[in-house]
Predict the structure of Holliday junction branch migration complex subunit RuvA.
Amino acid sequence: MIAYIHGKLESVTDLVVIIEVNGVGYEIICANPLKFQHKLGEIVKIHTYHHVREDAQILYGFEKIDEKTLFSQILNVSGIGPKGALAIVGNAGVEEFTLAIEEENEKFLTGFPGVGKKTARQMILDLKGKLPFVITQTANDQGQTVSSPTTITKEVTEAIEALKSLGYSDRELKAITPALKQENTKSIDELIRKGLALLMQ
């Protein structure tokens, strides 16, 4: 798995960016490639999802790791492929999408290209309670309680992925995510140890 590409941004088109690393140009499909246009000729880091098919190996790229994480989660939904998942990530913020899933907001979900009511319901069924982003409660100007998701740090995300590889379920990991988010450390190893301690309680 290619987790990210770090190199010189050589080219930007409507569909892809090309990054050169040690004389090799990597073509990366992005939802909104033109947002990298201002970094042309500079050294950049793009988080990538390495999609392997029988007939091709494709790199999908994201500016933020949360976007990559959301993309990989959406791919788990029956009936949604990389093209559809990329369109969703490119047209919705991680926070907006997470809140729509948790609140079962079909109207919001059907606003994406190719997503009808059946697919929206499938996304809610497959993703509700499983997205690794924390939703906090805040009060608006009228004093009403509203939900707003807050993303977790890269270190917490990587620690959760490591714990998932050990066989823990999404439900178990979601339960300990708020506690990990409160840890005042950027050490992934420490976060993993803390996570294991919480899971064994």
In short: The longest helix spans residues 154-165. The beta strands are 4-12, 16-21, 24-30, 43-52, 57-62, 134-139, 145-150. The domain at 65-127 is CATH 1.10.150.20 (DNA polymerase; domain 1).
